[in-house]
Structure formats: C-alpha cells, structure tokens
Write a structure and sequence with these properties.
Blueprint lengths: L1 E11 L7 E14 L4 E9 L5 E3 L9 E3 L1 E10 L3 E11 L21 E9 L4 E8 L6 E4 L6 E5 L4 E5 L4
Antiparallel strand pairs: 1-7, 1-12, 2-3, 2-8, 3-4, 4-5, 6-7, 8-9, 10-11
Length: about 170
C-alpha cells in the first residue's frame, strides 16, 4: 500500500546570522521495511531519486533499495525563519520483524527524521553542512563549523504526519 508522510520543520533566529542557509533535498526517515522485514530502519531519501535506500540491519541484511521517494519538497524563507515541508511517498505492507516478531506499522511506531542543511560562511568563504533531527534537546542552536557564528535555532521537533493517501 502506498503511504505518504508529511515532514515539516522550522528554524528561527536567522536575523543573527550573516550566513546563507538553506535546506538540502536529502532526508533520513525511520520506516518499517517490508523488503528486509525489519522494523525501525533508517531510510535515506534524495529529491529526484526514484527509490530510497534502506539501511538494512547489523545482523546480516545489507543496505538495499526500497520503494520510496520525495514527492514534494517546499521551502519558505523569511527575514528571521527558514521552513521546510517534505512529502515522502513509501510503499508499506504488513509483516512481522524477522528478528523479534514485532508487527510493522506505517510509519514506524516511533518515527524519527533527520533534515539536512547547507550554508555559506562569508568570513571563511567556505561552505558547510548541518542537520536537525527529532531526538535533539530543544532549543538546539546551530553554529558554523568555520567561524562558530550562529546559524539558527531549532525550537520545535520536526513534525511527522501520516496523510490519508489524498494530497
């Protein structure tokens, strides 16, 4: 069954930075994978890719392709905020985990997401990257790896919402 998840996040405090900050079109999302029949797998999505990459597991299953893609990716930039909304399509089918017999869910029972950012440091004249994820202590202050200047503040956990199949 095709499912769609909406993932949203926002950074604030951008008025304190001189860096050019933007969302990268890559994200990681925890899903229950019907291919390797494991729950809670980190799945990597890249905008434009027709398939996602499941991390597999540490006990014998290798990383593999899976049915998933970024169906929509919108960003909003304001004077003091930077927001993102991603729609992630993924295929899901019921199964029991091959290792601990846990029932699969869509999305997984504890969804986790990591969103990637990139920026340009005018002081160092170099690019850098960063990320935010659901399991960070908030507020989380992002800083430049080159000059240690402020980039923005992640005040709220990225939201994950399963849509009913109609967009």
């Amino acid at each position: 069954m095709l499912r769609t998840a909406e993932i949203t996040a926002e950074l604030t405090g951008l008025e304190n930075t001189s860096h050019q900050l933007y969302w990268r079109s890559r994200l990681e999302f925890t899903l229950d994978c019907f291919i390797c029949e494991r729950t809670g797998r980190t799945t990597v999505f890249e905008r434009g890719a027709e398939q996602a990459q499941c991390s597999g597991s540490r006990s014998g299953f290798q990383s593999h392709r899976t049915a998933g893609r970024i169906a929509g990716f919108d960003t909003t930039t304001g004077r003091d905020r930077l927001a993102v909304r991603a729609l992630v399509d993924f295929w899901w089918a019921p199964f029991s985990d091959t290792r601990d017999d846990r029932k699969a869910a869509a999305p997984t029972s504890h969804p986790w997401v990591r969103l990637h950012l990139a920026y340009y440091c005018p002081e160092a004249k170099e690019s850098g990257t960063g990320s935010i994820q659901t399991n960070l202590v908030r507020p989380y202050h992002l800083r430049c790896k080159h000059c240690d200047g402020p980039l923005g503040v992640d005040r709220e956990t990225p939201a994950v919402r399963l849509l009913d199949g109609q967009r």
